């Protein structure tokens, strides 16, 4: 009987030692591999239809009550984003448009001043919220540099020249991802843009400020590589 009890005790010791060894091995094992973010491409592109809504304001120096107005346009636009982390990204938007410049206020009778094409590349640094599943809102702020080209006067106006200008940009928007790669996007930007300008009216030089300050309202398709 004593031998049986000793055999049973030895068996329990062996089982306990085996369980302890297994537990120790589990504790000493390297942690399970986490998701490798580097395996996911940091690049993303969007193609949008973009509405450019300008602020109808401006002035001709020395003429009281003078004002300016500008045409609004809809254009295609491409943006390229790079994600430094899941939350932080930089976005560059590319597109070009034109604006008719019209005399307004006390000089409204002078009619159309001219037309200028704009290339306004805008770079923003964004924060993306990642706690809402497929719905991925973001906010951003950055800088815009607008090039004016192919400028021309109209009627009695000639030598229209709107200076290239740096401006600040604010942004809010969201992506709604349909799968790992494709999604829909809605985006709104405010550009603070007030360049100086000059033009000749029947040979008389005029100068002033063009207060464009446009809203850029876009909707389109997102693709994450």
Automatic annotation (TrEMBL):
It comes from the Bacteria. Gene3D superfamilies: 2.40.160.20. InterPro entries: OMP/PagP_B-barrel, OMPW. Pfam families: OmpW. Coiled coil: none annotated. This is OmpW family protein. Keywords: Signal. Belongs to the OmpW/AlkL family. Residues 1-21 form the signal peptide.
């Amino acid at each position: 009987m004593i031998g049986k009890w000793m055999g049973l005790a030895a068996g329990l010791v062996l089982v306990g030692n085996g369980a302890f060894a297994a537990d120790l091995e589990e504790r000493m094992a390297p942690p399970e591999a986490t998701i490798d973010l580097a395996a996911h491409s940091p690049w993303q592109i969007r193609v949008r239809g973009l509405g450019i809504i300008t602020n109808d304001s401006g002035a001709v120096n020395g003429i009281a009550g003078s004002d300016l107005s500008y045409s609004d346009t809809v254009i295609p636009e491409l943006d390229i984003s790079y994600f430094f982390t899941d939350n932080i990204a930089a976005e560059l938007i590319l597109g070009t448009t034109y604006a008719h410049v019209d005399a307004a206020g006390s000089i409204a009778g002078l009619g159309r001043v001219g037309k200028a094409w704009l290339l306004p590349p805008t770079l923003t640094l964004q924060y993306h919220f990642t706690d809402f599943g497929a719905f991925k809102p973001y906010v951003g702020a950055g800088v815009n540099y607008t090039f004016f080209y192919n400028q021309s006067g109209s009627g009695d106006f000639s030598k229209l020249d709107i200076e290239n200008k740096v401006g600040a940009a604010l942004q809010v928007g969201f992506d709604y991802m349909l799968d790992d790669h494709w999604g829909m996007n809605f985006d709104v930007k405010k550009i603070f843009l007030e360049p100086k300008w000059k033009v000749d009216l029947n040979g008389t030089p005029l100068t002033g400020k063009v207060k464009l300050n446009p809203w850029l309202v876009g909707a389109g398709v997102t693709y994450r590589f």
